[in-house]
Design a protein that fits this description.
76% helix; 153 residues; mainly alpha
Length: 153
């Protein structure tokens, strides 16, 4: 993996922001437990939130591509741009099908995108903290959406 200079970003900042981004999922989980009559709405809100995060992760692929040293070939850049828009399209589909299926699609998408980043981690220009944080947040975000689905079963 090619490592970007890290002088401009303290690794603690993305960690704090990333982990605090799990708070809405905790709120949905707590809400389902406290107010079971709102289960359908809170489950859909959880799916929307995961879809927003998933779309953001796709946008990161665009950021990597526009970085001058991010790709070795034009084809690699084109593939990364296509991968970058795919999460938003998957999210759109996930939000118009029944929530159970859409949530499963979002969970699968999070893992597939992480798999893509893992596979190309040696050629991506990423800060050293990115992949470990991405793994942890994927486990927690996908797990929290799975927990929401489990509570609604």
């Amino acid at each position: 993996m090619t490592v970007m200079p890290q002088a401009k970003v303290n690794p603690l900042v993305p960690q704090l922001l990333g982990y605090s981004g799990l708070l809405p999922m905790l709120a949905c989980l707590g809400g389902i437990w406290l107010w079971p009559h709102l289960t359908d709405q809170l489950t859909y809100i959880a799916a929307i939130y995961v879809g927003v995060i998933f779309s953001f992760l796709g946008g990161i692929q665009w950021g990597i591509t526009v970085h001058a040293d991010a790709t070795t070939t034009p084809d690699a850049g084109a593939i990364r741009l296509i991968i970058g828009v795919t999460p938003a399209l998957i999210t759109l589909c996930a939000l118009v099908v029944p929530t159970l299926y859409g949530s499963a699609l979002l969970i699968l998408g999070l893992w597939l995108l992480l798999g893509f980043e893992w596979r190309y981690r040696k050629i991506l220009v990423l800060p050293a903290w990115y992949i470990p944080l991405r793994i942890n947040l994927t486990i927690l975000l996908a797990g929290s959406l799975a927990a929401v689905l489990w509570l609604t079963a």
